[in-house]
Amino acid sequence: MRYVFIVNPAAGKKDPYRSFFPYISNYLKSQHISYTVHKTEHPMHAAELAAEEADKGDPVRIFGLGGDGTLSEIAAGAAGKKNAEVGIFPCGSGNDYIKTFGNEADFLSPEKQLSASSKTVDLIRSSDKISINLCTVGMDAKIPIEVAKMKRFPLLSGPAAYDIGLVKVLLGKLGDELQITIDGTKIYKDSFLMAVAGCGRYYGGGYCAAPEALPDDGLLDFVLIRKPALHRIPKLVSLYKAGKHLAAKEFTGLLTFCRGKKMEIEAQRPIAENLDGECKFVNHASFEIIPKSLNFIVPAADNA
Q: Are the C-beta atoms of 53 and 86 separated by less than 8 Å?
């Protein structure tokens, strides 16, 4: 088994290569384990590096040091490669995908990570990207754009930055006229606040958007939320963040939840799209499950 580490030096508040990788390398040396380490230099570099390592064909474990964006890139590079297993040491600002599997401390443990087994999980294909966690359009896809603007303020990151971004978006125009088609048969036309397609459950530094999503069931969890009256939004956001929205009476008439394999979205004007935190404006969005397409390393809890 080969071990490869792909470090995003721009992740989180401190360069993980300097602040955390020495801890990993010391453990590897103590166990007499050889390894290769790469540092990313530009967007999608992690995907390129992961693909190069996986394409060698031998058994390889590729660990990222970074956040959800780093993991998403590595997953895209290793997608469909049965010889490759992918893990993440969460060093980003949100670290949301791992919340579906366990606590952050286990994922930060070199001992647990290197002794862990992997499980086969699903991925999401959009028009030009492969994602691992959640894809969305609408209000919540505008928020990361605002969050990105705050990166020049070092004290604002993770949940705090997301919450401030939310407030800024709420002060703008809400609702998009969308036609949403699920699995080619279910069609919804309305003014939507947002639409979510999830393999994972959390995003935005802890918002539980798809609380019942399973990362390995071959289905996407779809959550569609219609535009509410403005005064109702604070309460709705609170429930949404806590993952209580699917059954909350406050969402009656506003929320549609279902599972399926593909969601297509047509908009009358450009809408914000969020693919694992990578955001842009589009007129059409498509999210489709890629079942059982990545071997994801999951450390056991409590030294089990």
A: no
Question: Cα–Cα distance between 122 and 275 in angstroms, integer?
Answer: 15
In 3-state terms, what secondary structure has residue 162? helix
- The pair of structure tokens assigned to 77 is 């590079």
What would the mean pLDDT of 258-269 be, rounded to a whole number?
A: 96
> Which pLDDT tens digit goes with each residue over 236-247?
999 999 999 999
Longest dimension (CA), the chain: 61
Residue 226 near residue 191, CB atoms below 8 Å: yes
* pLDDT at residue 304, rounded to an integer: 41
Which tokens is 196 given? 């979510």
Between CA 286 and CA 92 the distance in angstroms is: 27
CA pair distance 225, 191, nearest whole angstrom: 9
Q: Taking residues 42-53, what's their average pLDDT? A: 97
Q: Which of 268, 275, 250, 57 is nearest to 180 (CA)?
A: 268
145-196: pLDDT as tens digits: 777 776 666 555 666 776 777 777 777 778 999 999 999 999 999 999 999 9
Residues near 127 by beta carbon (within 8 Å), at least 6 away in sequence: 282, 284, 285, 286
Question: Cα(12)–Cα(161) distance, rounded to whole angstroms?
Answer: 13
Rounded-to-integer distance, Cα 86 and Cα 197, Å: 22
* Nearest-angstrom CA–CA distance, 85 and 64: 11
Instruction: From residue 57, give the alpha-carbon distance in Å to each of 2, 34, 60, 81, 181.
Output: 11, 18, 8, 8, 39
